[in-house]
Specification:
- The longest helix has 17 residues.
- This protein has 407 residues and is an alpha+beta fold.
- It starts with 23 loop residues before the first strand and ends with a strand.
- It has eleven helices and 19 strands.
- α4 packs across α7.
Length: 407
């Protein structure tokens, strides 16, 4: 780690600097110096309806160095946002001055994350935001996978604006049906960077350093033909916020500065769509503050459903079309009546919440893997919150970081 030489296998110098015309960049990654378990907390957009989760995390972390101090959990959005963002920026500076973090040599990180469905393997690298688009109809090498809601971007952009570091939770899919890339990497003699258990049931995670020359080969291997080549599978709004901030910033820069400014890039984890541990779990819907019987009667008249208690199981296909239909019905009802909607990860949690007064849960179906890139062709997106990668606790935790400012 740090400036220490890292082991590698093979001789890859011939193409070390030909990296897909900068679509993928080989970054200097930051890692905590110690106490990985308290440093790493789950993605900010998880457990938005369960503040007790975040309160438990805060008690566990206390005053220890932690990525919790550098993020804005969405469970608290709308409450003292400016103060929380200011505090996050101060914590980022403190991470440097108090030496919470160390900078690795330029390279990638191979991750092995134990989840409910198996060991998910990924590659942490940086992407060029100039090669990414989230706007409907725009074709690009890297696409968002789901609709980005403009109203959700301002707090995330504000957090990035003035930040010196980023700690991303985005996962980007690539296509490798035979899993050749990860299999080849596992034959390399890579240095272990970390091996620990994530808090609150997040499972074990291991990380291995991929040095620069081998990382260049990996970057080439990641690229496949297709429209799009890569798609943001999780963390769509975080990547969109990074893009929005870059568009805001680059107008102040010269053409030369734009080519290399660190905010032009963002750190993500590349995961093979066909990894055995990748399981699409639908993000269910819940309506609150409604007349239960009136809502169920309305929904069941529009779509054939099976009702179990206060849960509805509509006969809708998994993926974009089914989610769009359910969302349209919910929106129409809420516009004509009182109430509010929310997105819930996990049928168990949905059932618990639906048992509360004036709440109804809508259980949505899973999507097939082969439909994923197919439904994104031509610059299309899935409706917002169509799917999640596994269970809530399987979401990516903040761990690796990167500098995004010269300050």
């Amino acid at each position: 780690k740090g400036n220490r030489p890292c082991r590698r296998g093979g001789d890859h110098h011939r193409i070390a600097y030909f990296v897909m015309r900068n679509v993928i960049r080989i970054p200097h990654i930051l890692l905590p110096i110690k106490d990985f378990a308290h440093w790493s907390v789950i993605a900010c957009d998880q457990f938005t309806s369960d503040r007790s989760y975040w309160e438990k995390v805060a008690r566990s972390v206390g005053n220890r160095p932690s990525s919790l101090h550098c993020i804005l959990p969405e469970a608290y959005l709308g409450e003292e946002d400016e103060e929380r963002i200011k505090s996050a920026h101060e914590s980022m500076y403190e991470a440097f001055t108090d030496r919470w973090l160390e900078k690795l040599n330029r390279g990638f990180v191979l991750t092995k994350r134990k989840t409910f469905y198996g060991v998910r393997k990924g590659i942490v690298a940086a992407i060029d935001l100039e090669a990414y688009s989230y706007k409907a109809g725009e074709e690009n090498v890297i696409r968002s996978s789901e609709e980005v809601v403009p109203g959700r971007l301002p707090p995330r952009v504000a957090l990035r604006r003035g930040a010196i570091l980023e700690f991303p939770h985005a996962i980007v899919f690539y296509k490798d049906k035979k899993n050749k890339l990860i299999s080849a990497l596992e034959e390399e003699d890579l240095e272990e960077l970390y091996n620990f258990n994530l808090m609150e049931g997040g499972g074990n995670i291991k990380g291995y350093f991929i040095p620069e020359d081998l990382a260049a080969v990996v970057a080439q291997s990641l690229h496949t033909r297709g429209d799009p080549c890569f798609a943001v599978a999780d963390g769509n709004h975080s990547v969109a916020a990074a893009k929005a901030y870059w568009e805001e910033l680059k107008g102040e820069l010269s053409e030369r500065e734009q080519r290399t400014h660190p905010a032009r890039f963002t750190l993500v984890e590349f995961v093979n769509l066909y990894d055995d541990s990748v399981v699409f779990t639908p993000i269910h819907r819940i309506v609150k503050h409604v007349d239960k019987e009136a809502f169920c009667d309305y929904f069941q008249k529009s779509v054939k459903c099976r009702r179990v208690g206060d849960l509805l199981y509509p006969a809708l296909a998994g993926g974009g079309a089914g989610v769009a239909r359910a969302d349209a019905l919910i929106e129409a009802y809420l516009q004509a009546n009182t109430g509010a909607g929310d997105y819930i990860h996990g049928e168990k949690q949905l059932k618990q919440l639906s048992e509360e007064e004036n709440c109804v849960g809508i259980v949505l179906a899973e999507m097939e893997k082969d439909d994923f890139f197919e439904q994104l062709k031509g610059g299309k997106n899935f409706p917002k919150k169509t799917f999640s990668l596994g269970k809530a606790q399987d979401k990516r935790y903040y761990l690796e970081g990167r500098e995004i400012s010269y300050d």
